[in-house]
Amino acid sequence: MKRKVYVIVLAVLLTILSACGNSAIQSTTKNEGGTAKNDGTIKIGALLPKSGVYASLGKNLEMGMKLYFESIGWKVAGKDIELIVEDTEADPQVGLRKARKLIDQDQVDLLTGTVSTAVAYAIRDEVDKKKMPFLVSHAGGNDLTRSKRSDYIWRSSFSSWQIGYSLGQWAYDHIGKTVYIAAADYAFGREVAAAFKEAYTAAGGKVVGEVYPPLGNNDYSSYLTTIKNANADAVYAFFAGSDAVKFVQQYEQFGLKKEKKLIGSGWLVSEDVRKQQGNAGVGTIASIFWDYHLDTKENKAFIAAFEKKYNARPTIEALEGYDAAKIIAEALETVGGDASDPDKVVEAISNVQFVSPRGPIQFDKETHHIIQNMYIIETNLVNGQAENKVIEVIEKVKDPGQ
Amino acid sequence: MDIIAAQLVNGVSYGMLLFVITCGLSLVFGILGVLNLAHGSLYMIGAYVAYTLTTQLFENFWLALLIAPLIVAVLSLIIELILLRPTYHLGHLSQVLLTFGLAYVIHDVTSIIWGSDVLSIPLPSFLSETLHFFHQEFPAYRLFVIVAGVVLASCLWFVQEKTRWGAMIRAGLSDKEMISALGVNIKLVFTVVFLVGGYLAGIGGVIASPILGLYPSMEFQTLILALVVLVVGGLGSIAGTFVASLVVGIVETFGRFLVPELSLFLVFALMAVILISKPNGLLGKQVIKH
């Protein structure tokens, strides 16, 4: 009997360890060998999760990048572009190993990617030491462009501050004077919540309670009962992926929707979860830097191209991949396809600006962080389907960088 | 007081959800002595098959609840006959490794078939209503889960304690050689039990997915929960699993209510305390001596 208990405990540990690391399956490398540097091609290494909880985000980033590179015929300044995608498994250890592999073995000219902020932090020193230009295409942790800022790291996606802060004043003016905050308990969730709180309290609002359920939480019933009995005008929530589906659905099921307006970050009702939420998300107000229904000619062209190629709606990660690819291509064009000097490459990246499907974008040379519009969106019912609508634009939001 | 009562209902409903998820694992482990680490994967297949049925073929949750577990049961029959049967004489560790490896294979296969997007199963309309009591609102589906848990537990108890099949199973459990000598095909009994375990995993998948959702790696999250309940309840005892599900469900719910920061840790702390004070679990009994 003792032995059996021992086996079970061992198994439990094994399972937990493997689940914590999201290390579903060891991936094999796509490009073996090829260590010799070929001057005819430009190599771009993309660190994206292809397994684990963030797999679908990684997939969409890759689809977006490929869409853009395809539109320029996989060529920039007369050279071929080669994209090498490595699976980080959203695990910092694995991410660092794969980054080293891309830099040392594949000798890539540029790095991009990482969905997980933890992975971005893990490879930060390696990138800095080896002077490898690294364009962050998703990971939004504040410190990446603050205390962990590096000359070689630039971010084209967003920061948690931009997401949270942008809704604070608006929520005070239009929603109510008291909120309850519920956010997933990990660095990004806490940063978004803190940024919202900063703006909301500065505007004069009051946060009556906060709760941080673990990431990947199963059941929100207990939290929702507590929130329901609290005296707040609205609930500010940060959840993404399967958490967002569960939270928004259960928010309605437990009868909170009728009493307290649900507001939060755009991931609460983003393209990848809204359909699965049914009508539960209708009425939600959120802040985000791109939306499918953004009415600009750049966005319409992007959506048409994406839907033609993949026969599916683009997600915000697909947009991020598309923009990152464009920024890289434009920077390489500026240096005439010569990526040998990393300082020139990052200089070229810093000067890139164009009108993206998400609106006009440019880099802040102080913080290395993108300056972009933020949109307040509302989820409505359109022909029986939940769709988002942009109700206000907050222009040129700039991360304070401290 | 209303809020305490409301949280208690939440806890019981979460506990019953855990029971529905865990009972198949507990049954197979209690009778076959096989710790099926692919249980979460069978659960996941049940959920995904139910998703395909309800979205592609017909919009009927009940029909999916009927069919999806049967498909999972057939799959577990194949697993038992081809993979597990040759390993029974090799001891626990080889089965643990085998089923764990199988879990990874199934993980890959499901993400190839169903992709990596988050999915959810639409509910029959009357179950998506809300009910009022204790001055609070409850989703009708949560109450359905409580009923389903109690019904499943009663059925399992009845079969195990009151029927000829249950008697054979219990006999085979304590002395394999003797029951074979009495003319019972113990191999067949094992196969049937594993098949029923798979069926229960499928039921768990269909019932839990409207609450827990469908997404890659859901099976490993489920497996952790199921193993915690299994260890707390006592190995091989359906009654133990039932009690443990309730205890874990209520402890976790009140943990989230009172000390949200510790909620994740509390359940594992509970498991540790029980393992130290009662190594066989709450209602564990001495089973299968080799």
From TrEMBL, chain A:
Q: Where is the Leucine-binding protein domain?
A: 41-380
InterPro entries from the UniProt entry:
BCAA_transport, Leu-bd, Peripla_BP_I
Alphabetic keyword roster: Signal
A Pfam family matched by this chain, by name?
A: Peripla_BP_6
- Superkingdom: Bacteria
**N-terminal signal peptide:** 1-21
- Family membership noted in the UniProt record: Belongs to the leucine-binding protein family.
- Name of this chain's protein: ABC transporter substrate-binding protein
Query: Which organism is this entry from?
Result: Geobacillus uzenensis
Automatic annotation (TrEMBL), chain B:
Keywords attached to this Swiss-Prot or TrEMBL record, sorted alphabetically, are: Amino-acid transport, Cell membrane, Membrane, Transmembrane, Transmembrane helix, Transport
What's the domain of life for this entry? Answer: Bacteria
One matching Pfam family is BPD_transp_2
For this protein, the parts annotated as crossing the membrane are 12-35, 61-84, 96-115, 140-159, 188-212, 224-251, 258-277
Chief subcellular location equals: membrane
Q: How does it sit in the membrane?
A: Multi-pass membrane protein
User: Where does it localize?
Assistant: Cell membrane
Please tell me whether the keyword GTP-binding is annotated for this protein.
no
- Family membership: Belongs to the binding-protein-dependent transport system permease family. LivHM subfamily.
Q: What is this protein called?
A: Branched-chain amino acid ABC transporter permease
Species assigned in the record: Geobacillus uzenensis
Source taxonomy? Bacteria, Bacillati, Bacillota, Bacilli, Bacillales
